Amino acid sequence: MRVIIIIGFIFTLIGCSHEITLQSLDGQQIGKATLEFENNNSGTIHLVRSGMIYQGQWTAVKVDESREIAEQYGMGRKKYQNYLQGKGNYLMSAQSTLISKDGDTLNCEFMYRGVTAHGWCSSETETFEFVVKS
After folding, report:
1. Looking at residues 76-84, what average pLDDT do you find?
2. What is the pTM of this model?
3. Buried (b) or exposed (e) across 60-79, using 16+ Cβ within 10 A?
4. DSSP character for 16?
5. Which sign does the torsion angle of CA 5, 67, 79, 64 carry?
6. Residues 13, 123 contacting (CB under 8 angstroms)
7. Structural domain boundaries of the chain?
8. Could you report the per-residue pLDDT of 7-60, keeping only the tens digit for each?
9. Angstrom distance (rounded) from CA 97 to CA 106
10. How large is the greatest C-alpha to C-alpha distance in the chain, in angstroms?
């Protein structure tokens, strides 16, 4: 199984649709994707890889960072209290299984917070990263 090391990417989450390139570690473009946000917790992915079209829904959940925030800022601090009250820029973790017409699957994961995100997809034989399409 060929595994490519996962490298982060940054893209702006302004608007509801983002064009993304899929790239191997050596910089070769291996496909493209459109990531659409229906709201902050869900959306769709449309991915083209090796002539195959994969599609699917993604959903996200808030990553619990309360312990890390409490350790860094202290439990009595405003930053920690705001986090507990639902005020803040939360780290979200999203997952999706994309399916082609032939029944092939790609498992995709990405994390985002505000305007930054990183992600990857994997099949039975490889893993590749998402990269900002410039």
Report:
1. 84
2. 0.74
3. beeeeeeeebbeeeeeeeee
4. S
5. positive
6. no
7. 17-132
8. 223 233 434 777 888 888 777 888 898 888 888 789 999 999 888 999 999 999
9. 6
10. 55
